[in-house]
Amino acid sequence: MPLHVAHRPTRQQVRRKVIDAASRAFRTHGYARASMTQIAESAGFTKGAVYSNFESKPELFSTICIENINRLSPPVIAELDAMFANGARDASAIDRIADSFAQIVIESGPWQVALGEFRQLAVHDPQVAESYATLLRERTEQAMRLLDGHPLARRLGPQRTREAIWTVFELISLLALEHAAAPHMVTPAAIRSVLASVLGDFPHE
Length: 205
Known about the structure:
mainly alpha; globular
C-alpha cells in the first residue's frame, strides 16, 4: 500500500494562512490582546513559522492594513470617476459614494479600534512607530497611484491631492471609531450625511 506523503506548504501559502488568522484575531480581540501565539495556533503553524514570515507583530498588522487598503481603494476611485464625470458634480454620484464610504466606515469599526491601539503604542514604542509610519506612507502612496492622471488629481495638484487623501482617510477613521464606541449617536444616517457634505465641497472645476 503506497504511503501518503504530506506536501509541505509553500511560503506563500504559509503567509496567506497567517494573514487570515491574524486578521480574525485583530478584528476580534484588538491589537493589544491578539497574541502571536494565538495567531500561530489559529493558522496551524508554530510561532517560529510565523516569525520566519513576519519579523514582528507590528509588521504583520501593517501588512494586513495595507492589504485592506489595496482591496478597498479601487472601488472608491471608481466612484470618484462617476462623481467627477465630464468635470461636473453629480449629486446622485455624491450620494452613492457617501453610501460606499459609510459602508466602509461601519464595517471597518473593529479594524479602526485595533488601528487606534496601534497608533497609541506608536507614540512610545519605536518599533511600532516605524511600522505605523510605513503604513501611513503606503496608504497615501497607494491612493496617489490610483489617482494618477485622474481629473480630480490634475485639478488639485499633487500637494492638495495628498491633503484630500489624508482628510478622507482620517475622517473615515474618526467616524468608524465614534460609531464603534457610540453607534446609537453616530448612526449610519449621520455618517452618510457628514460624508456627503465633505464630498460635496470637493473642487470640481
